[in-house]
């Protein structure tokens, strides 16, 4: 049997931090005019935060007592106080801490390569502060922290694509991020608009391309084709209407494989599908009847299974036929047959 005394150990290490006994490092944080010093120990940093330990070894700055100094002006004293107490005592108290501060804390933990803390803060924000994350979506996505939040961000984009496609920073979106979005099967955006945005993004990556496509030469189309080589395979060309094929895709047809373009034309002219050899991607799955959210069977965002013999509906308005007079739970036995159509935007 093992007896653990982690609580006292944590408390004692916090006392060591607060007293600063035998410290050999000073970390100064905050704005240069009012930097706040923290007295720490390189041995603790070595085992608890290798990032700061490396900073300690590289530091050439020291005080009159020959104690090395590390400066981090971009980090607030409030944030660093929480971080350093985690490093020493393995505890983080988020009670009464503003969500914006927690997000900044997450950014700092990621910078300091504190993987355990980074993961826990990310999970905390997603579970407890999802409303704030949605309201500050652009800040999150533009922070460069999208790898940790990739799935979460992409789930939001799938339902609210304009958050990213209509943002001022869309053209600076990394290629990998754009591909991860357009290859989703549940992106609630018309395929012709996805094409428009992909073309816009591709052109923005090459400032030498003429602004008027009528002035383009073969080299210009090749440049765009090379830029979009990772994106083009994920466009659902055969889900674009005949009108949009001619109006939107045709002007850029030179960036497509000749066989693919021939098949697109055949499809738009209602040729026999058997004569089409190009891969036909399935349509967006945003109208599917059943999907799963947190292992619960759901219909869109409105209806989900609420136990073995019941359902719960959050919204009743906007459907082609009335499902229920009011929101709430109902037993399966209450209905012999019921059919659900996609709720319209109202």
Automatic annotation (TrEMBL):
Signal peptide: none annotated. One of its GO terms (cellular component) is cytoplasm. SUPFAM superfamilies: POZ domain. InterPro entries: BACK, BTB/POZ_dom, BTB_POZ_domain_cont_9, SKP1/BTB/POZ_sf. PANTHER family: BTB/POZ DOMAIN-CONTAINING PROTEIN 9, BTB_POZ DOMAIN-CONTAINING PROTEIN 9. Residues 23-96 form the BTB domain. This is BTB domain-containing protein.
């Amino acid at each position: 049997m093992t007896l653990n005394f982690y609580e006292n150990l944590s408390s004692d290490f916090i006392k060591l931090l607060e007293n600063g006994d035998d410290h050999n490092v000073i970390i100064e944080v905050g704005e240069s005019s009012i930097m706040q010093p923290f007295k720490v120990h390189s041995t603790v940093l070595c085992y608890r935060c290798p990032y700061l330990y490396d900073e300690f070894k590289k530091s050439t700055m020291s005080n009159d007592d020959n104690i090395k100094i590390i400066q981090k002006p971009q980090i607030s004293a409030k944030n660093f106080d929480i971080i350093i107490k985690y490093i020493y005592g393995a505890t983080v108290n988020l009670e009464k801490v503003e969500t914006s501060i927690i997000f900044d804390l997450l950014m700092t933990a990621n910078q300091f390569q504190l993987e355990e803390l980074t993961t826990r803060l990310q999970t905390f924000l997603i579970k407890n502060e999802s409303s704030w994350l949605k309201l500050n979506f652009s800040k999150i996505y533009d922070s460069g922290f999208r790898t940790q939040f990739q799935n979460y961000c992409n789930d939001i984009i799938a339902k609210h694509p304009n958050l990213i496609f209509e943002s001022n920073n869309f053209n600076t979106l990394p290629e990998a991020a754009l591909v991860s979005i357009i290859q989703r099967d549940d992106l609630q955006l018309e395929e012709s608009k996805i094409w428009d945005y992909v073309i816009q993004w591709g052109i923005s990556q090459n400032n030498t391309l003429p602004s008027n496509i009528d002035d383009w030469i073969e080299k210009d189309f090749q440049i765009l084709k090379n830029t979009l080589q990772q994106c083009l395979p994920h466009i659902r060309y055969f889900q674009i209407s005949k009108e949009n094929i001619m109006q939107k895709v045709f002007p850029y047809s030179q960036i497509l494989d000749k066989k693919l373009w021939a098949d697109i034309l055949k499809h738009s002219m209602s040729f026999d599908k058997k004569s089409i050899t190009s891969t036909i991607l399935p349509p967006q799955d945003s109208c599917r009847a059943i999907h799963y959210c947190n292992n619960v069977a759901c219909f869109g965002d409105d209806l989900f299974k609420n136990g073995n013999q019941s359902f719960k509906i959050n919204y009743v308005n906007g459907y082609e036929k009335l499902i229920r007079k009011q929101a709430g739970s109902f037993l399966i036995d209450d209905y012999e047959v019921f059919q659900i159509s996609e709720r319209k935007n109202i």
